[in-house]
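Hey, I'm writing a tutorial for new members on how sequence and structure tokens pair up, and I'd like a real worked example in the thread rather than a made-up one. If someone can provide the structure for the chain below, I'll link this post from the tutorial.
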Amino acid sequence: MSFLAILAAIAVLAVLIIVHEFGHFAAARLQNIHVNRFAIGFGPVLLKYQGAETEYSLRALPLGGFVGFPDDDPDSEIAPDDPDLLRNRPLLDRAIVISAGVMANLIFAYFLLVGQALTLGVPELSQPGVKIPELLNQPDTPAQIAGLQAGDVIMAVGDRPLGTSLQSVSDLKQAIEQSPNQPLELLVERGDRQLDLTVTPDPDSAGRGRIGVMLVPNGEVVRRPAGGVFGALQAGAEDFQNTTTLIIQGIGQLISNFGETAGQVASPVKIVQIGADLARNDPSNFFRFGALISINLAIFNILPLPALDGGQLAFLAIEGLRGKPLPSRLQDGIMQTGIVLLFSLAIFLIARDTANLSVFQNLFQGG
């Protein structure tokens, strides 16, 4: 990994954090709600600027950021009954402020994908279908029973053709996973012949269908012109929908099958490494890298967990049902516990992913 690629990946993460926090900030200020802090990072202040009402700061721990409100600031000179304090606003106003960070990340991700389509073109495969490079070396897999062979290209599953979209592999995997013990009709291209084969996926331990093959795109990734601004907007929307769906499915699998998928959770260190590798191979990958991380950040933040935006929205929902908020001491206790747990998890993941970096592996091995 080059130093410039690492800096570029860190810059992308920093921009996404700023976008998220700016969403909260803008939603508050557009409603004339008081904001006294806008911070990137946590912990000790490295740099700060005091505006007319808001302190803008860069802090030592680059694990996120926050927008602060004077509601609970004992040094604030704003009267407790000021109607422009966040806590004195109606539920809807507060919900808009809390959810605005998530919306900002989603909107930003969409326009990154639009920008990719407009400047670089729409990525697609040079040939249609999904290729089977090899079958698993196991006896009597569904693929072997169906007569599939290494080198086959699956052109359609059921009545759904697998064209040149980058989603073709994911679409086929999804069709297989969703069809345990159910026959799937496949149109297979083998050399200059086309075959109709039927495969019945076996369920795995989680109940997902498996047929015992590897699946890869058929052909190289090429880019075609987006067809102007309208075409780029449409291509960005399709890419955004497909990417978001895959991320939601991945998070769903993480939650439902945590024991097997927990190792895939990445820290900022791992994310920077992935981004740097992408930049080294092709700088244009930063469009997609930024969009993926931005959507992940949005979806993760909307989960109803303490210390996240979704946790605060859950408190608002409870307040709406009860007609009054939970006791502040209870809310503070839940939030503080959530912060401790999230920071502990972040530190563990950072330590794990840092130790797995090649430079540290070489040090440990005496290389």
